[in-house]
Amino acid sequence: MARQDPHDTPLRRHLAGTATSRPTALDAFHQARRTFLAGDRVDMQALARALTVDRATLYRWVGSRDQLLTEILWSLIEPTITRSRKAHCHSGSPAVPGQSPAAAVMSDVMRAVIANLGMQRFIDREGELALRLLTTKASGFEARLTQLVAEIVREETAAGRLQSSIPSEDLPYVLVRVMESYTYLGLITGQHPDPDRSARVVNALLPRGKNSCPDAE
C-alpha cells in the first residue's frame, strides 16, 4: 500500500491539477489569498462565511489553516522564482552585472519577499507561526523550496555559470537558511530586513562560473 502524503489535501490536488472532484477548494484558496495579499489575517470562520459553507466543509477542502497558509505562501514564491529564472538563467549577458544568474535569482526572491505587504504583515502579526510554517518540516514548505533551489544550483553548475566551493549537496540548504535569516531579521534582531545585505552574502555563496558571459559594456 502506498504511503499517504501527510501534507496532501484536496486544495493541493486542485493546485496540482490532479483533483477529480468539483474544484470548490480553489474558491477558498483564491479568497484566502486575496485576504493575505491585502495584509489581513486569514480567518477560517470568516472565510467559510464568505463562501457560504460550513467550517467542516472548508476544513475538508483545504486541511488546516496552517496548510492553507502554506499553499498561499508557496503560490507566491514559486512563480517569483520561475519568472526570475527565465530572466537570468540563460547564456546571454547577465542582467545584473557582477552577479551569477543563480545569485540574481536568489536576490530577486529576497527582494520580492521583503517587499510583499501580505508577507510582512503575516510575519509582524504571526511571527512564530510564520517561522514554523516556513522553516521547519511541519508544513513541507522548506522542503519544496530547498528542492527548487537545488534544481537551480544543478542546472547552473552544469552550464558552467556557477562555481561554488560549497558542496552541491549542502549548498541549497545553506541558501535557503540564508534567505530565511534575512527574511526574519526583524524577529531575530529587531533590525529591518535589508535585501542588499542578503545579496552580498548570496553573491559570495554563488560566484560566477567560467562559462558566464562578461558583463555588458
Question: Could you walk me through the main structural features you see in this protein, from its secondary elements to its overall organization?
Answer:
This protein is mostly helical and 217 residues long. Helix content is 65%, strand content 0%. The protein contains twelve helices and no strands.
Q: How would you characterize the largest beta sheet?
A: none
Overall pLDDT metric? 88
Estimated helix fraction: 55-70%
Which quaternary structure do these chains form? Answer: single chain
Tell me the strand percentage band. Answer: under 5%
Low-confidence stretches: none
> Shape from CA axes?
elongated
Distance between the termini: 60 Å
Work out the number of β strands. 0
Q: Radius of gyration from the CA trace?
A: 19 Å
Number of continuous helical runs: 12
* Run of helices and strands: HHHHHHHHHHHH
The helix/strand class is: mainly alpha
Brief descriptors of the model:
217 residues, 12 helices, single chain, mainly alpha
Question: Which helices and strands occur, and which strands form pairs?
Answer:
Elements: H1 10-16, H2 24-37, H3 44-51, H4 55-62, H5 65-88, H6 101-115, H7 117-125, H8 127-135, H9 141-158, H10 171-183, H11 185-188, H12 195-205
Helix pairs in contact: 2-3, 2-5, 3-4, 5-6, 5-9, 6-10, 6-12, 7-8, 9-10, 10-12
